[in-house]
Amino acid sequence: MPTPTPGGLPGFCEGSGSVLGVQTHVNCGSFLGHKAVYRMGFAMASFFCLFAVLMVCVRSSKDPRAALQNGFWFFKFLALVGITVGAFYIPDGAFTSVWFYFGVVGSFLFILVQLVLLIDFAHSWSQLWLRKASESNAKGWYAALCTVTFILYAASIAAVALLYVYYTKPQGCTEGKALISINLLLCLIVSVVSILPKIQEAQPHSGLLQASLITLYTIYVTWAALANVPSKQDVAWVRARPKGMRECGVTGG
């Protein structure tokens, strides 16, 4: 889908004509595409960082500042709307390029936290089923654990195959092939490491269930990255992309 042009709001956007003799000089390019995402992200980050600072050392709901956290929703909503609107009036300048790096670091930390939570969830899951298997002396829990692990790995393998089919081509698409292959190799390494004797001695409940869940999540993140590469119909974005990626994208359908 082509990126919309900023000239579609007469009387509001700069260079779009006037309405009833009224013409503003707003650069609507800030309202579109990744620039709009950056401004929304900046507004949300600023709002919650402000409240994080206000809530420093608040340990009880009896603290007078706790009322700011638990109430005043109407005014907090107004503040968020005001910050968001104000963010769209920040001049482009260096804002877009600087906030890009904030986004890169923030997204990396977000994915890292997700991985930690997933590993903890899978570890608790495995520990619970193994404990039930040992307490009841029933092999059904082991069978269930193996079945779930097999399903997760099967889904991951199928997803990798689909990524190669729909997001790469025999000629070109080098970056896409490299991204899929490197992540696949890392998933294989994690799976092997999870069952090494030294790891089992340190973490008896560690195993392939955790590795299979992380593998599936990694393949999902890989798909998300490839799916967000702009299509070749979007000329402006295609020109900005690396040469090896210009002809890549969904190749079927």
Describe this structure in words.
The chain starts with 32 loop residues before the first helix and ends in a 13-residue tail after the last helix. Residues 1-8 and 233-246 have low confidence and may be disordered. It is mostly helical and 253 residues long. The chain is flat, with a radius of gyration of 25 Å. α1 packs across α3 (73-87). The protein has 9 helices and no strands.
What is this structure, in a nutshell?
The chain is mainly alpha-helical. The chain has helices at 33-54, 66-70, 73-87, 95-136, 140-167, 174-194, 197-202, 208-227, 235-240. The chain has nine helices and no strands.
How are the secondary structure elements laid out?
Layout: H1 33-54, H2 66-70, H3 73-87, H4 95-136, H5 140-167, H6 174-194, H7 197-202, H8 208-227, H9 235-240
Helix pairs in contact: 1-3, 1-4, 4-5, 4-8, 5-6, 5-8, 6-8
